[in-house]
Design brief:
2 domains; flat
Length: about 260
């Protein structure tokens, strides 16, 4: 395809993606407004304070509208993600080899599952413990007035951090598929990875030692071991494919007449 035709196709892919996000954002705004999605996000705050009627404060008359609009856009992006992913894949897949497509397609599905698992773990396990940890400081000397923008920013950053960290096996799969990482390299760097996981866990989950260990270090270690297993499988299949190319089967097909 000529270069200008590639640009034309890219333009239409981007337009369809933006249209999908716009339509999904309009639907998301309605969902946030009518079905109280905001209550779902602040539920861990209410649980940490043991007050089902607790409300966040806002400092500007326009804050309720813009908070609802922002949440609606986030919901719309999540709803439109399959369409956007399809447009990106349709544009890039013709340039990939068959073996690369076989490696990337499972990685996309696995990445979605792992991201949802990371967000769920952060919401149901890490976020309540983290909020209770912060509540335990200076309770006799200070009174908290939680502002909605800062509180929602803290919650969403924690959820996204867990979701992104859980994408480690997908990153390793892609790096293995393109030949930048080998299973042997991952096994040799296991100790370094454990140290890096400890530092990363301490930054993402501020809490006591038990919380730090259970909530983040153990999942990160398991994800790293899963990455080694997936990398070994991809590396083995690639080695078998290269071996079959270098040493093709020279036996005659069934029914063929062999020469003396």
């Amino acid at each position: 395809m000529p270069f200008l035709d590639h640009l034309e196709e890219l333009r239409w892919r981007i337009l369809w993606s933006l249209l999908a996000v716009a339509v999904a954002s309009a639907i998301g705004f309605g969902l946030v407004y009518y079905y109280n999605v905001l209550d779902l996000l602040i539920a861990p705050v209410r649980a940490a304070k043991d007050d089902p009627t607790f409300r966040l404060v806002y400092l500007s008359p326009a804050d309720p509208f813009f908070i609802t609009l922002k949440l609606g856009i986030w919901v719309g992006v999540i709803m439109a993600f399959p369409v956007v992913a399809y447009q990106i894949w349709s544009f890039l897949s013709p340039a990939l080899e068959k073996s690369e497509r076989r490696a990337i397609i499972p990685a996309l599905y696995l990445g979605l599952v792992l991201f949802v698992a990371g967000v769920a773990m952060a919401y149901y396990a890490a976020l309540p413990v983290t909020l209770q940890f912060f509540e335990s400081f200076q309770g006799e000397a200070m009174v908290d007035v939680l502002e909605i923008r800062e509180t929602l920013g803290f919650i969403t950053k924690l959820l996204l951090a867990f979701g992104i960290v859980f994408e480690l096996p997908v990153v390793i799969m892609v790096l293995t598929a393109v030949g930048l990482v080998t299973p042997e390299f991952l096994r040799q760097k296991r100790r370094h990875a454990m140290v890096a996981n400890t530092v990363l866990a301490s930054l993402i989950t501020p809490g006591d030692v038990i919380t730090l260990t259970v909530m983040m270090m153990v999942p990160l270690f398991l994800l790293y071991e899963l990455s080694i297993i997936l990398s070994r499988g991809i590396y083995r299949r690639r080695a078998e494919r290269e071996k079959s190319i270098l040493q093709p089967d020279t036996e005659p097909p069934p029914g063929a007449v062999e020469a003396d």
